[in-house]
Amino acid sequence: MDREEGEDWEPLRARAAWADVVPIPQDDGPRPVVPIAYTDQFREVMDYFRAILAKDERSSRALELTAEVIALNSANYTVWHFRRLVLEALRSNLEEELDFIESVAENNFKNYQIWHHRRWVAQKLGVGAVSGELEFTEIVLLDDAKNYHAWSHRQWVLQELGGWEGELDFCSRLLEKDVYNNSAWNQRYFVVTKSPLIGGLQAMREHEVHYCVDAIKAAPMNESPWRYLRGLFKGDQDALAHNPLVVAACIEEIRKDASCVQALSLLVDLLCAGFRPTPSDTELLHQPVSSPADLASNVCTHLENVDAMRARYWAWRRSLLPSTTPVS
Amino acid sequence: MATLHLQKHVDYIKSLDKKSDFDSLVTEHLRMSGAYWGLTAMDLMGHLADMDANEIVAWLLKCQHDCGGFGGNHGHDPHVIYTLNAVQILALFDKLNAVDADKIASYIAGLQNEDGSFAGDEWGEIDTRFSYCAICCLSLLKRLDKIDLKKATDFVARCKNFDGGFGCTPGGESHAGQIFCCVAALAIAGALHHVDKDLLGWWLCERQVKSGGLNGRPEKLPDVCYSWWVLSSLVIMNRVHWIDKKKLEEFILDCQDSENGGISDRPDDAVDVFHTFFGVAGLSLLEYPGVKAIDPAYALPVDIVDRIFYGQENGFTDKL
């Protein structure tokens, strides 16, 4: 329930405005599998709501009643549906509806219905809603940076209504706050690949490699930038394996920490994609090797130990390597 | 070494009949899902017969609307999620003939958009969860020919990300729950070629954290429900051996309430029917002794799925 049962709540049966309505009680059927306990207020509000729904009464008192139902249970999707019908019938001021949503949404940001309703209102309001919606999602994300609904809503606003101008900076701000935020990395990829303003993945690649390598240096165990890096070279493994910045970052992290799973994993990918290590690179794991495939094999064996939970994955990766000299 | 308190979980699910707490108050609108979780868990544990099939089916049929779709309870609007759950429950009880499959199929077909995606209901929210619900439900009803399946799977493929995972719409962050929906939908539709199994398999096995549990996204806490979402996807892609199954099993068993039954999201949290189902279903995928096998795509016991598609309705195996 979203709100404590109000002591000053006036029962609907005592209100003159509702005197003409006969409430309809819930029919739970016999021995319900997941039965429901009803508080008196909840029961009465729902009984009147069912009555209004049965009459399909799209009036201002019906709108007020939907607000009472939503206050008691904002996850009830039927009441939100009906509220939209009433809003349409009354041609209500939708700016005010945004305020209503904000009052309900507090502490309820994981509720599908609220976000869906918000999108419906924003769509009706059109381009004029852009800054308000970006601001609203920003407020939610400052509190819960990985809120899936807020990110979805934000992506929808950008694609449908626009507002791309500050989005890459927005991602940078969130990543500055928490470089482990995978949602912000995903949004960054979304902006780089979909924004009409910055030229696309190819044009942004070098810029993003720099950004990503810095993030890796700050937190080498963070899986998100390592994946993002691969994403920048999606479908172009050759360019990945021959990008000096990528190669240098990978080797450097392994030199710093020979158990850095993410760096070791990228090294296997680089070797498989044609990266030719220097003699000093091949000494990385303190085992002399005669070929890139040998080095890749050694790295996989090493990963089977340092990432033991996924040992069978690394054994499988090793089995895919071209013929190698047996590891002693 | 912990073991599964099977009888206690059975008793817990049965006790929900008499339960009168805060949670049940606010979940009234999704009672259909609650019933599906509870009943499927009961069947996996071999106790479906403890439940009154006739009463439940009678209640369920009253949740159907004229359009063919089902609501989450009496008096609630139809939605594709509850329509799938209703069909799954009918499948459990071998009562699929109690409904008009064509009518349900036409409701679902009406939710498909021009780009192949599905709306959840008449209000048009789009999400790959609804693609799964539509494809799974129509397959169980043998009515996949009522939608444009090629467009449906192409839309799901458009939701694939650079990390191999899937989101709720194109560009949406990869999330294990969405990944299950997309991979299972593609599996049922015979379109697994859209899945980059090695890349996604690696992403999914990286979801296992030190405690042995699985999370749904990087840097998030483990939760028993991902024992289903992650594991089922790995099983469908034949990559489940890439994780440490023993440690995951221990994590799930640690989330049991060993006194009163039920399973929670993480050790020592409060139990609920949702996590009880996903815990039991996860153990089923791990081939835990005493738990029936579950189909990773249809989210129903394998023998139920076999009965639908191979017609083993004569209880042949029961008589052995």
From TrEMBL, chain A:
Belongs to the protein prenyltransferase subunit alpha family. It is an enzyme of class 2 (transferase). InterPro entries: Prenyl_trans_a. This is Protein farnesyltransferase/geranylgeranyltransferase type-1 subunit alpha. Signal peptide: none annotated. Its EC number is 2.5.1.58, 2.5.1.59. The keyword Repeat applies. SUPFAM superfamilies: Protein prenylyltransferase (SSF48439). It comes from the Eukaryota. Pfam families: PPTA. Keywords: Magnesium, Prenyltransferase, Repeat, Transferase. Its cofactor is Mg(2+).
TrEMBL record, chain B:
Binds 1 zinc ion per subunit. SUPFAM superfamilies: Terpenoid cyclases/Protein prenyltransferases. Its cofactor is Zn(2+). This is Geranylgeranyl transferase type-2 subunit beta. It catalyses: geranylgeranyl diphosphate + L-cysteinyl-[protein] = S-geranylgeranyl-L-cysteinyl-[protein] + diphosphate. Its EC number is 2.5.1.60. Keywords: Metal-binding, Prenyltransferase, Repeat, Transferase, Zinc. Residues 4-299 form the Prenyltransferase alpha-alpha toroid domain.
